[in-house]
Amino acid sequence: MRDAPRNSDDVITDLRAQVADLRTELKQVKELTAYHLERRQKAEREAQEYKDTSERSRAENARLKRQLADAQKGNRVVSIDGTVKHDGSND
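The chain above was modelled as a monomer; its predicted structure follows.
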């Protein structure tokens, strides 16, 4: 804690120093808040991208499983790229 001021000039000087300290602290808090907001937004974007990629992967996996099941019913060979060969031959 600061020493008790002796006159009005000391009070004014003390108050100016406190205001300067508070301005510095406010600036630092704003910078830190902006930094964390940026990090949060980036994390939310990355999470959404991951979710979208995951959903596309699940959809592709389901499509391939259906294609495989259909091929097995018809005694066909299906490659990953979707090429279908009938009767199990590789022609």
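The mean pLDDT is 85.
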